[in-house]
Amino acid sequence: MKLERNNKIVQADRPRMTDFEAYVRVLESHAVAALEGQKVCVDRQRLSRFLNGETGAELRRCVPLADRQSIGAFFTGESLRSRAIGPRLNGRVSGTIWDPACGAGDLLLGYGEKLPIYPDIGQTLIDWGKRIGGNDTEEIFLRAAKARLVLAAYSRGARKIATTKLKLSLDEVFPLLQCENSLEASLGFEPTEIVLNPPFVSIKAPERCEWGSGNISAAAQFVDSCLKVAKSGSRIIAILPDVLRAGSRYGHWRKYIQEFAAIERVDVYGSFDPQADVDVFILELKVREARLTSTGSEEPWGVRHKPSSKKLADYCTVAVGAVVPHRDKEIGLEYAYLHSRDAPPWERINSLSSRRKFAGTTFQPPFVVIRRTSSPSDKFRALGTLVNCSEPVAVENHLLICKPHDGTVKTCKAILETLKSPATNEWLNSRIRCRHLTVGAVRDIPWET
Question: Do residues 225 and 100 touch, judged by C-beta distance below 8 A?
């Protein structure tokens, strides 16, 4: 199942959930027992596991990684949930909470820890059902969310059934949890707080999108949609891929967000999940009463280290290699060709054996190339190679080029020293934690030599 061009769900792509459904039926059997005033026949530790981590682990066990990636189905772990909404749960929760991509309810369970509890489970769940809303396109996830919320109320002491009028079925609880795509659904209530861990897949930008076109991040569009339904003064807490915080492509999105909301918190978290292979940050917004006409600055988005008086861009021009190997036809003049695999880290290249015809932009040495693929877990975020051939070079697009303004090898060596500096690693890990370095981030690297 993917969010496709018109943001609708393509049924042919739906992942198989058979084994995970068997686990959800176990959750539901215990939730039904709680609703009927019976004792849930599991010990306290197992009950805690139902609410903290086990459901996500079962999804990983039962559903292949490729299927989960196709729909962005990666449930929020207990640590990330606490980091995201813990600061908001110091006091009593009031109003209505909405999660537009609620999955199995991990984030909503965090709020359930602070909602009012009554001795009668029916009264408790009627109250919670008016306060907790959510959407997801997978019905099986919503079933898991309902069952877990019932068990959360049970675990906090809501166990008696005072009257038969308050006796509820599992189908009747949490009426605001709906199986719909929230990017298209019409919300029937007005949330005072929105919390979300949206899918990180790509979708086609909707018509009249003010900040992007073509394929965009679904997570970015989810935040945009939340701003459109949120009332003034309400809060949005979102777990988002780091590319939205630091990627140059989403600069317009960041300015757009600041026009509608004040940034209350940007918290760089790190890796979401070993299998998701993406770094995330937590964004907390307070919705403005009216849209601002002025654009926001980049400072609130978590660039923690102020650059020194000099930056890399003061000494060189930064560009992306122009050759797209599987797209560009081999036409035009023949040039020396540099691919990322032929750029040994921290070494100097005086000649290149690879050659190809190319009709686009080439670069005259000396210059430094940097591998664009980069992870915060790497020993060096910016792996550099000095290129000093005697002829123009066609450079593959997985490399960034730093061409010194003065055209000297001496400046190229100084660039390598700056890239290799521990201070550069630290700065880049604060500036950008997505898996590709951007021209903007490299231009802003503080000059260390």
Answer: yes
